[in-house]
Design goal:
The chain is of the alpha/beta class. Strands 5-4-3-6-7-11-10 form a seven-stranded mixed β-sheet, sandwiched between helices.
Length: 319
């Protein structure tokens, strides 16, 4: 086992961090909006603010490995934890999907399209999947997927559920593993998709051309430009050809596409970010045939622990 003072390289997608510069978990960063507090109280079953905070902090502690403990992050196999910024900054508590303009459209698909399936990919604890279920999208038709199965298990702990009490599908897997998600050409079959038994899924491949809505937040920016295109094509192959089928999300964006460098605590990390224009042209013309989708983007100012950046919200709807 490694000494805690030794530096280890941490890989998060294509981003590299150094373990000695990872801050300890900071409870002072905990905050919930009134909407988030109401949601978690209703879903978790804890009405008292301090009791709810204590419960969430306990789950966060299991998901975030403080740097003063033994570190073995490279494979993430010895601990049920990862020092992700979304864990450190309590970003995993945000209700992302319900803040997007297409959210009501997604809920309408769940109500009106027979056997519509919603995929929350890179979901962490699956908070957005739970939010959609609470707002009426049939839980049995929702897939929450993450590369870390431990996060999916901690989602049950966060919401105090079990596989028996929550009917949603929790599916671990690596989106760059073709055995889990291979690239397929976008479907042109607009006939209604047959009902799927999501509980028996081992990968996403059986759902090519059959998913009505896909949510991918804080995920694309973890990868380089080539992998972002690969991932976009993989998601496009899952999307139903029926008009109105949608992919949406949010990630770091920029005014002009390129490499961004963020400096925090003496450590510099670099990531590739698209601009609204290049993101739109990627989907409309490269991933899908030109004119086959409607792409909407919005850049908004954001910050995590005093690091400021642009967040790009977006949606891609099949026409």
């Amino acid at each position: 086992m490694e000494d805690a003072t030794e530096d280890s390289t941490i890989l998060l997608g294509d981003l590299t961090f150094h373990s000695v510069l990872i801050p300890n978990a900071n409870a002072s960063l905990y905050r919930l909006s009134s909407e988030e507090a109401a949601f978690f109280k209703a879903q978790v079953g804890i009405d008292n603010d301090e009791d709810l905070k204590r419960h969430i902090l306990e789950v966060q502690a299991k998901a975030y490995k403080a740097k003063d403990l033994v570190i073995s992050y490279i494979t993430l196999c010895r601990w049920k934890v990862a020092p992700y910024p979304c864990i450190y900054g309590f970003v995993f508590l945000r209700l992302n999907i319900s803040s997007y303009p297409v959210y009501e459209h997604i809920l309408k698909l769940g109500r009106e399209r027979p056997d519509a399936v919603l995929l929350d990919i890179g979901c962490c604890f699956g908070v957005d999947a739970r939010k959609a279920a609470a707002d009426g999208f049939p839980a049995k038709n929702i897939i929450a997927s993450d590369i870390n199965n431990e996060f999916l298990e901690l989602g049950h702990e966060l919401f105090r559920t079990t596989p028996a009490s929550y009917p949603g599908c929790l599916l671990p897997g690596d989106v760059f593993d073709p055995a889990f998600l291979s690239i397929a050409e976008p479907s042109d079959d607009v006939s209604p998709a047959p009902a799927s038994d999501l509980s028996s899924l081992k990968s996403l491949n059986p759902l090519h051309g059959r998913i009505s809505a896909i949510h991918a937040t804080n995920l694309f920016h973890l990868f380089n430009e080539e992998k972002q295109l690969h991932f976009a094509r993989a998601l496009a192959g899952l999307l139903s050809a029926q008009p109105g089928s949608v992919i949406c999300g949010e990630q770091v964006g920029t005014l002009e596409k390129g490499i961004l460098t963020a400096n925090k605590s003496g450590s510099a990390s670099q990531l590739f970010a698209h601009s609204p224009q290049t993101w739109s042209s990627l989907w409309d013309g490269e991933v899908f045939e030109k004119g086959g989708v409607k792409v909407e983007t919005e850049l908004v100012e954001a910050a995590i622990d005093e690091v400021k950046f642009f967040a790009m919200r977006w949606s891609v709807i099949r026409l």
